[in-house]
Amino acid sequence: MNAECTNTTNSTPGHARSVRRGGAALAALMLAGLAGLTAAPAAQGAQGAEDVGARPAVAHHSDRGALLRVTPVADLSRAEVAAFLRKGKFGTETVRYGVRAYRLTYRTVGTDGRPTTATGLFVLPKSESKAQRHRALGLVSDAHGTMVHRDYAPSVAEDFGKLSPYLHAAAGKAVAAPDYLGLGKGPGVHPYMDARSAVTASEDMLRASRTAAQRVGRTLSGDLYLTGFSQGGQVTMALAREADRGLAGFTLRAVAPVSGPYDLSGEEMPALFDGRVNDTSAVFYLSYFLVAQNRLHAIYKDPSDAFRAPYADRIERLFDGRHTEEQVLPALPKTVKELLTPAFYERVQRPTGGLKEALAANDGFCDWKPAAPVRLYAARGDTDVPIENARSCAATLAAHGVRAPVLDQGGVPHMQSVGKAAPKIARWFARVGS
Length: 434
Fold this sequence. Notes:
The protein is 38% helix and 16% strand. It is of the alpha/beta class and 434 residues long. The protein folds into 2 domains: 13-263 and 367-433, 3-Layer(aba) Sandwich (Rossmann fold); 264-361, 434 Repressor (Amino-terminal Domain), CATH 1.10.260. Strand 4, helix 5 and strand 5 (174-178) form a beta-alpha-beta unit. Helix 3 crosses helix 5 and helix 6 (195-215) packs across helix 7 (231-241).
């Protein structure tokens, strides 16, 4: 229920295609030319990088985070980073360095706990001097929002998925941006909104990043900063909760999610039905959530139990990771009521059984007492993930004695909230780490 839809006043699929593209590309951001900025420099290689041959895929739990491959994907100057961010409508005031980016392939575990592999984007600030190259870098874990096609993932895409990672690297920190399971070059189908597997993939990306930094001649300080947008906001809070047990040996310094659905049962799910989430986004998120979660929880036996005709016959194929949003959105109805059978429409509003289990498994990540400072960025104009999610999270944290301010980015839509928030987060991370 979160992620990359923009705020739409016209909720027809045709309009939606003009304002969003796959959880991470977003035609609304007018990113024409971004691919040229990232893809062309990749051919130049990256200093100290190597493309290591793939190793056997069998892994034990002790191998989690083992680095299998480092592939250079971009090498941008400071000016090129700034131009890239401006095209994506991100602020550039924190840009101090160029960046080098790599795709990491590493070992992790699947939703069943068995060994698998995943990929992610690892970004480093370019150093102009020997002293800078020897400086130990703090690491930002940057969790992305909803992506329906596997090629929208940060390590593969050439547009929106790289904006936030490049911004934080250009501000002077290393960045680990996991693709999650089933996205990027990882096998299988993405378990959308499964926080547990997103956390394990993210934590193992931290381990792989430590090794990758050493391999390309850089050092990580051990300081960790967590951020993430939309679905990634939920992942950020879930990952932060794991810091109590060490989190891959890093020390958590600050937590700053943006526009996350922290309260699925209390805020985000009801908002799909009460008008706070626009119709196009509501249909898209709910469809994706039900199909993906049904692979993990017994929500329905047959698609026709949940979805009306003709959508029941196509819904699971649409969310197989090989369809773009331009393909998915026209194949869906305009409203949730047109999507679901009457009985299931009522059930979703009063969850039972597997649906209740799925919601419970992905809720409650604000219900603890973090030691590191937390700031919650959101926007009152967001009609994808209403700001009430952040307010609910702040209230839950306050019950544990933690003050986590909700920083309202104004009357902007969902996608613009991260463009406004990310430079502020980069400045805050710099202050916390100084």
